[in-house]
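Field reference: sequence -> structure
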Amino acid sequence: MSQINTSPVRVGNFTSSGIVALTTSDRSGKGFGAPAMTYIAETNYERMLGRNIDSETNARATTWGTMVEAIVFELLPTDYTFSSQLTDTHPIIPYWRGSKDGTKECAERAVIDIKSPFTLKSLYSLCYPCIVA
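Structure field:
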């Protein structure tokens, strides 16, 4: 898995940040691709063990992301709610959970997902589609 699940609520569940792996297909286009099969297996391992199977975390990247989230929310109007520490469970699909960075609960409801690239490569990957569009 590319995202490390440290919350006990998220361990053993598909998360919004990792679920993109399930969109990959095999060469025939009819089955799951290798990233999906790996994600499914690792999620099952976590569920069986009752704990996170990844032992490595990037504390600098996590600290950076947490700091950027706080700065962004300081800049937003007051009708936005910071909620990245809360994990939601999908009402229908078992084992799918996710954490929104924030929400706006008024006439125009919105979910916020803040991106805070830690490396130059990840910044370029995020911004490039906007530059060429």
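Note: The first strand starts at residue 14 and ends at 15.
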